[in-house]
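# nightly structure sweep
# worker-07 picked up a monomer target from the shared queue
# config: single-sequence mode, recycle default, output format = structure tokens
# input follows
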Amino acid sequence: VRLVESGGGLVQAGDFLKLSCSTSEDYDTTYNMGWFRRIPGSEREFVAAVSWSGGRTLYGDSVKGRFTITRDGTKNVVYLQFNNVKPEDTGVYYCNVRVLSTDRNYWGQGTQVTVSS
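# output follows
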């Protein structure tokens, strides 16, 4: 399974950033897509998820109101938009696919986001 993330890098606090993740896999069924992150010294935490249709979204408490997750019309690309990024958002961001029929999860390699103050 191939998940390709892009858009990470070094930004300043308060900046805008947008990550993208695409999957070329044919899961033969519906799947949700989302993002998790691992902040230095912490366990991997949930950031956001979007349903198959794109109509339902869910956010972690630490990013609610600042991040926006969207999914394109092909269903194969998910975006995570950061508004008002903070130094505590620094970490590795992982794209996630969760196949609904099996509840199986797939992961990308991760993309580093570093926010300077």
